[in-house]
Amino acid sequence: MEIKASDVKKLRDLTGSGVMDVKKALNEAQGDTDKALVILKEKGAAIAASKSERAASQGIIATYLHPGDKIGAMVEVNCETDFVARGDDFKKLVKQIATHIAGMQPLYVAPEDVPADVIAAEKELYKSQVEDKSKAVADKAITGKLDGFYESVCLLRQPFVLDQDKKVEDLINNVVGIVKENIKVARFVRFEVGDR
Predict the structure, then answer these.
(1) Is pTM, for the whole model, over 0.90?
(2) Which residues pair with 184 in a beta bridge?
(3) CA pair distance 44, 175, nearest whole angstrom
(4) In this predicted model, what pLDDT tens digit does every residue of 62-119 receive, in sequence order?
(5) Domain 58-110+154-192 -> CATH class
(6) Per CATH, domain 5-51 is 3.60.21.10
(7) Which domain of life is it from (predicted)?
(8) Which one, 68, 80, 91, 139, has the greatest CB density within 10 A?
């Protein structure tokens, strides 16, 4: 099957994947770019999962200052080697994450970082909203509402500010697929004038 250069370019722009990975995904998807995009996302997630236990002790800190100088963010993102930390793909990712933090105001990196008392308070609120439902329906509703809560306050679960079809986690997984190293957001801080 012949693969169009325009399709390869389109998928590379969307995912940041290498030419050979994109061609392989297009062949597997029989030229369907939507299916190839899904294949590339799954491959990135699988690579990220396989690398997730490896130590990420190198990295960089990036900042973002919004025009008008009233909002700013700083983030530390770690990877496994200094070589990757100095690479353009990694630097671009970290800058995108800093921009996202300034715009979307996450409170935590991931759901496991949310304090237990905050989760308990959220669950109590949701329980009061579904008191009249059966236990099975109430449990399902509470789980759904808790997932929505994580999406609103956890950086990795939030839809990316510049592309709502991707989550921040997806951006990271795409770069993990390219650099073949574990990448972790270590910490971040967001500043807004007058917000203490």
Answers:
(1) no
(2) 78
(3) 8
(4) 999 999 999 999 999 999 999 999 999 999 999 999 999 999 999 999 999 999 999 9
(5) alpha beta
(6) no
(7) Bacteria
(8) 80
